[in-house]
Every structure is written in structure tokens, then in C-alpha cells.
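Module 6 notes. Inverse folding takes a fixed backbone as the condition and produces residue identities as the prediction. Think of it as a translation problem where the source language is geometry and the target language is the twenty amino acids. Below is one complete input and output pair. Work through it position by position during the lab.
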């Protein structure tokens, strides 16, 4: 095994899942703050239940999370001890602009993120910033209805300009939107969208998608103008869709689901809407106001690299009876249980070869450098007297690193790095709880909110430390 010496071994988090301090230093309220833990979580994320305020009837673990806001120095020091080369984190939009489009940015918010960046650079850790990771200011949702309104583009560009101005020369790698395709699956979480009675959902979703795509292109263009050495990528929730059988209808179904997944990236990487997407919108009666300026921006603002999350592949069938055999786990992407794969404790099917297949599919499609910015195993870790023995996580990471090695050395693809998800325990985006832990660093925080927030190294911490030190040769 031989990884390039510049390969970016690292870890990833998101502001709304780790920072806490959701009302400190003039931070405004965001959509991610009003999504509760419990049975109402998915209806709110789907935009079917309107919640634009927090109440006393629900529990919001993300409000405190793991208190990265006050402990970032301690955590980044641990990242450095682990030998991390890259740390991916995101911006809480409302820390910079509490109402989303304030006249001037909140200096306290800019100071915080610059301090996080400086702490990374102190240890030689490359910052990778996600500008928008499921984050929409509540004030803008009330004002415009989230990304269904074109005004969101200008508000987003104010955020970008403030970040690029403050962090110019310090941050090379940027991502515009996290898992941008999630807009179609979880509209409120992905884009601050809830549906009014009688609204055409397809019209709303594809209009919002267009606005985000234009905003992404404008951000890429601005970044290149303000920071000539910067690289800006897109980011999707990836994972190949396998046909359940070789029946042509299953094969077509798999192709169709893959196309759905790559819809946004087709535009961000190629600069124009694919033919099939145009035809689909026509069939759905969707009419998007695409101006000549939009068309020009999409062409000029294509991304420099393709980043993505990969946790599992998916299996699909055209047969209604087969579809009853749903795979447990990721409720966002409905899929059939693959009989050839084992599953995690949460039902996510484990498929390291699927990562290699996904990488090849993405490169064949776009011919741009790849960056795996999320990969990992969620599990209910147990603290023993002599430590936290998460051998299952080590096994998962080892096999996926082997797949990365094959991508680089056998397939010859340009893979920039891998930032494993939840390198430190944090609040799960899908379930809203901390019990589903991804980290190599344990945080003493429990589902009921108790715990002293002490950080403890798991066995996977020591293992990953050696992997990075050996540049992937010791697994």
C-alpha cells in the first residue's frame, strides 16, 4: 500500500452537531436548532410539520451538543496528537449573520472561526470549511420561506464574502453546500423549506435546488476571484445504487436512482442541467425561472473537485414485493436489503467495495479530483474499566482505507484525502441523539443530556494515529 505523501488524512464535524452554545455571542436561531429529538424529528426535517421556534415540549440535544464552542482548543490538540492532516468543519451561518442578511457581520462569530482555523494551522492541520452544512437562518425562513426564494442567493453571498475576506490566505479547501442532494429528501433540514397547504412540492423543491446551484456557482466564482489559490468543491450524499437483480427493470431503476443522486453534481461539475433532468421537470410540470445570467454563472462557477459522504451502497428493485424487504438504517434513502452484505448496529449495510465503485463512477462521470469528506461507523460504544474497545469501528475504517488504496493505486484516480465522519462523538443528524457514536474520541454526554463532557481516547484513536503516522501502510 502506498498513499501519496500529500494525502489529507483527517476527520470531520458539523457546527450544529458539535458546537453547542446555540444562543451565545449573538448567534441567531437556525433551522437546525428547531429540529427536535423524538417522534416529531422526521416530520419537521421533511417540511411536513412547521417548527420555526423551540418549545418546552421537545428536547434539543444540539443546543448543547459536545460544547466544541468552548473546548475547540482541547479538541484540536487531540486531533493533532492523532496526527490529523486535515480537519473539516462547518460554519454556523447565524454566528456570522444572526438574521441571515444583517447589514454587517457579527465580529464575535468571525473571531471564533478564525480562532479555530488558527488553532488548526498551529498544528499543521489543513482546514476544510463547509460554508453551509444544513444551516438556514430562521429569520430568512420566516422572511422568504427558505431557499424557495431567490433572495437567499444574495444572503448566502454576503456570508461567503465575509468568510473569504476574513480567512483569505488561511484556508485553501472550501465546500459550498453539504450533501446538497439532501434538499430533495429532507427539505427543511436541507434548505429551510416547509410546505404550505396546496403548494406544488416538485415546483418548490426544484426551484430551491436551482437557487442553491446558482448560489454555489457564484460562491466558486467569488472564491477564485478573492482567493486565487483556493479550491472549491461540491458535496453529495453518495453511494452506488445496485440493481437487486439483472432484470432490465431493476437495472433501469438503479440507473434512475443514481441519476437522481447526481442531479446537483451534474450541474455543479459540468455547468449545465442534464437533458434527463430537463425532461423530468417538463413531465412534472415544473417551470423554473432560469435567467441568462443564471446560465452564464452555472457555466463559469464549476467546482474544482468532487467531495462526498459514503457510508453504504444501496440496493433497488422495480418489484413491489421485493421492495417490502426494506433495509433498515438510513431512512432518508429507501433501499432493499442487500443479501450479500452485513449491517451495522443501526442497520446500515457495510460495503467497502461499494466505496471503490462509487469513486470510479464519480470520476468516470466528472474527471475531477475526488475527496471523501465523510465515512464512518455509528455504534453504541461501551465504556469499560480499561478503555473503549471499538474493534468494530477499526475493522470498518481499515476495510474502507483498503478500498481507498485500490482507488489510488489500482484504478489510478486522484483522491485528495479522507476526513472520517464524527472524528469526535457528536449529535447524530438523522436521529438527533448522541448514542449513535462515530468518533475515535469518546465524549461523556448521554442521551438524556447528562455527562461531564470529558474526552476519552477509544482504541480507534490509537489505531488511526498509527495509520496516519505510517501514511496508510500500517493497518
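Target side of the pair, the amino acids:
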Amino acid at each position: 500500500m502506498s498513499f501519496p505523501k500529500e494525502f489529507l488524512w483527517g476527520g470531520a464535524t458539523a457546527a450544529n452537531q458539535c458546537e453547542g452554545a446555540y444562543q451565545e455571542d449573538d448567534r441567531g436561531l437556525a433551522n437546525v436548532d428547531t429540529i427536535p429529538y423524538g417522534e416529531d424529528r422526521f416530520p419537521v426535517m421533511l417540511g411536513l410539520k412547521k417548527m420555526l421556534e423551540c418549545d418546552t415540549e421537545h428536547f434539543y440535544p444540539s443546543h448543547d451538543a459536545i460544547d466544541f464552542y468552548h473546548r475547540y482548543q482541547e479538541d484540536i490538540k487531540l486531533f493533532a496528537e492523532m496526527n490529523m492532516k486535515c480537519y473539516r468543519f462547518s460554519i454556523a451561518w447565524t454566528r456570522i449573520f444572526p438574521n441571515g442578511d444583517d447589514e454587517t457581520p457579527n465580529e464575535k462569530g468571525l473571531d471564533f472561526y478564525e480562532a479555530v482555523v488558527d488553532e488548526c494551522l498551529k498544528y499543521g492541520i489543513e482546514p476544510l470549511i463547509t460554508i453551509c452544512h444544513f444551516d438556514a437562518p430562521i429569520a430568512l425562513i420566516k422572511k422568504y420561506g427558505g431557499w424557495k426564494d431567490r433572495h437567499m442567493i444574495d444572503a448566502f453571498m454576503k456570508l461567503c464574502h465575509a468568510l473569504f475576506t476574513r480567512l483569505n490566505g488561511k484556508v485553501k479547501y472550501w465546500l459550498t453546500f453539504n450533501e446538497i442532494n439532501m434538499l430533495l429528501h429532507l427539505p427543511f433540514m436541507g434548505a429551510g423549506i416547509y410546505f404550505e397547504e396546496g403548494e406544488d412540492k416538485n415546483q418548490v423543491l426544484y426551484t430551491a435546488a436551482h437557487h442553491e446551484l446558482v448560489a454555489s456557482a457564484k460562491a466558486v466564482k467569488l472564491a477564485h476571484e478573492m482567493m486565487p489559490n483556493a479550491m472549491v468543491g461540491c458535496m453529495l450524499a453518495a453511494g452506488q445504487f445496485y440493481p437487486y437483480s439483472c432484470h432490465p427493470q431493476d437495472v433501469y431503476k438503479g440507473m434512475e436512482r443514481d441519476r437522481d443522486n447526481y442531479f446537483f453534481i451534474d450541474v455543479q461539475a459540468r455547468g449545465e442541467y442534464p437533458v434527463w433532468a430537463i425532461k423530468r421537470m417538463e413531465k412534472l410540470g415544473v417551470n423554473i425561472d432560469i435567467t441568462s445570467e443564471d446560465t452564464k454563472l452555472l457555466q463559469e462557477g464549476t467546482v474544482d473537485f468532487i467531495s462526498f459522504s459514503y457510508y453504504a451502497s444501496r440496493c433497488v428493485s422495480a418489484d413491489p414485493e421485493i421492495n417490502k424487504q426494506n433495509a433498515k438504517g438510513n431512512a432518508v434513502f429507501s433501499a432493499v436489503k442487500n443479501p450479500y452484505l452485513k449491517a451495522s448496529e443501526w442497520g446500515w449495510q457495510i460495503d467497502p467495495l461499494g466505496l471503490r465503485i462509487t469513486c470510479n463512477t464519480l470520476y468516470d462521470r466528472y474527471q475531477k479530483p475526488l475527496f471523501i469528506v465523510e465515512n464512518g461507523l455509528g455504534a453504541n460504544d461501551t465504556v469499560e474499566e480499561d478503555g473503549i474497545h471499538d474493534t468494530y469501528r477499526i475493522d470498518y475504517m481499515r476495510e474502507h482505507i483498503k478500498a481507498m488504496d485500490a482507488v489510488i493505486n489500482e484504478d489510478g484516480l486522484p483522491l485528495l484525502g479522507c476526513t472520517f465522519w464524527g472524528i469526535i462523538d457528536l449529535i447524530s443528524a438523522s436521529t438527533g441523539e448522541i448514542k449513535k457514536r462515530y468518533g475515535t474520541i469518546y465524549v461523556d454526554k448521554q442521551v438524556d443530556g447528562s455527562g461531564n463532557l470529558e474526552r476519552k481516547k477509544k482504541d480507534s484513536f490509537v489505531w488511526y494515529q498509527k495509520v496516519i503516522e505510517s501514511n496508510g501502510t500500517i493497518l
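Reference fact for the lab report: The two ends are 10 Å apart (CA to CA).
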